[in-house]
Specification:
It is a single chain. The chain has 608 residues and is of the alpha/beta class. Among the domains are: 31-142, Archaeosine Trna-guanine Transglycosylase, Chain: A, domain 4, CATH 2.30.130.40; 277-331; 344-521, P-loop containing nucleotide triphosphate hydrolases (Rossmann fold), CATH 3.40.50; 527-603, Orthogonal Bundle (Helicase, Ruva Protein, domain 3). 50% of the residues lie in helices and 15% in strands. It is built from 20 helices and 15 strands. The protein has helices at 3-27, 60-72, 152-172, 174-186, 192-202, 207-215, 219-271, 277-290, 296-311, 317-331, 344-354, 359-375, 393-404, 420-423, 436-444, 467-475, 511-514, 527-545, 557-567, 574-593, and strands at 37-43, 53-59, 77-82, 99-111, 114-130, 137-142, 382-386, 408-412, 450-454, 483-484, 491-492, 498-503, 518-521, 553-555, 601-603. A five-stranded mixed β-barrel has the order 1-3-4-5-6. α18 crosses α20. The radius of gyration is 47 Å and the shape is elongated.
Amino acid sequence: MHEHDNDDWIEAEEIIRDENDNISSSLTISNQTLPQTLYILPLSERPFFPAQTLPILMAESPWLDTLKKIGETQSQVGGVLLVRREEEEDATTEDFYQTGSVIRLHHPIRSDGKLQFIAEGVRRFRVVKWLSDTPPYLAQVEYPHESESRNTEQTKAYAMAIINTLKELVPLNPLYSEELKYFLDRYGPNEPSPLTDFAAALTTAEKEELQDILEITNIHRRMQKVLILIKKELDVAKLQAQIRQSVEKRISEHQRKFFLREQLKVIQHELGIAKDDREADIDKFTQRLDKLLVPDEAMETIEEEMEKLGILDAGSPEYAVTRNYLDWITLLPWGRYSEDKFDLKQARIILDQDHDCLKDVKERIIEFLAVGSLKGEIAGSIILLVGPPGVGKTSVGKSIARALGRKFYRFSVGGMRDEAEIKGHRRTYIGAMPGKVVQALKTVGSANPVLMLDEIDKMGSSFRGDPASAMLEVLDPEQNVDFLDHYLDVRFDLSKVLFICTANTLDTIPGPLLDRMEIIRLAGYITDEKVDIAKHHLWPRQLDKANLKKSQLKITDSALRHVIEGYAREAGVRNLEKQLGRMVRKAAVEFVNKPRSKKQKNITLKDV
């Protein structure tokens, strides 16, 4: 644009502004024409400022008559006052504040028991006297003179501060820009009173604070208060903007990553590099099944579930249930058996390494292995190890698994009250899982492991079922060929599993369960046996826990016998191990306090 054209544009803008000022001044009601009495309408939420033009909605009853009275006046102006009540319908003259705004009514409308009109603010007024006590309320009013500060420079400074704060508010909230546009169309930049009122009306301050500002006639004091209010409003708006930007940033980053992932999936699918989740799951399950020997009956069920997986929507709950089912059933060791070792000499070596004494128990286990060697398999056998605590029932079971070369898995059934823990939950329940037996088979990855059921004499029963009765199907060789877990709902052969149960007493084991077991009793140990066990097993284990060598800490036979006969006279050796552990810890304290050269000790009878 040329400089000459720019000057013409500025001159035209000034002419338009002058014309707008002349028109607005001609439309404004002068102070002389404002009536001395006004019909009053109530406002309950916020006071109305002279610089505002807003739609107002109120109940038709009892304010319809007041609205008609205002419409019948020559100037069609009335007054609006803030009331102290939350609802304006029941407002009395005592509830009104004394200072309000003169308004001109535009476009009054009645609809569904409500009155709606546009109120154009004119100027402040103050109630002098109430001329009626019931609606329509009529009041004698006066129009206070708005005194300006003598310091015009200070007033301009406040005006500039208010304008600059409004400029910062406008970008943070689009509603502010619309109201500011209307204000600039109606008022000139050098009118501090409307500017102050307009700024106050923009804020979200409490109605009492806004009413205080409405009642201040001194423009300088009013500008001070309003500047504080809009500064607070700016701080709140900035904080809201920061929170909004933070949330939008997170959402946009999440959406961007989501779209990129989806695009990557499509590209990989098109290039054949990768498959979608459904195809990947089906391929994974198919690859697992290729390595297994699944019976025909179970295979039919698996194929039906695979077809269902291909039809279901990936986001549906039933898809997740079907996928979890296939994940479980394809991880079971169908037709996968470990080869049994029937070397009796090696079995004796392993049993002697793991246990001292227990000659009759070892012989019974060797006999059991010999019969299995003649048959070519060990199947349909349930061993019950009975004895007091601490005699080595669990460790004997581990030794049997080592001697056979089978996987070993132990779980305790003591205190079990729900038969679903043995036979699984049905898939209709949320969080359903297979029973402990199926979980064990999945963990060991073999269909013929050694499963130890600890504390079988301590199983309970409740309203959820009788787990001891459910155990019959697991342990009975005539039934466990077709064991049916409620979750899998297909038959699984447990006949090759070697079950070893442990118990402290036979009294609490149900008769039908006890009849199916081969009982091996483990009695307590005499002193000489305990000495051998302590030397070969317990003492080395305690030294290893304390990170001590055998050469650093030794114990004499007399001291060991004294500990056994004086402090550990129970049938098992668990308490004996605890006492030996105490002695090792006492010695460890001495070693820490002594220099390195003296870190050797021989525990004698006197030291015990």
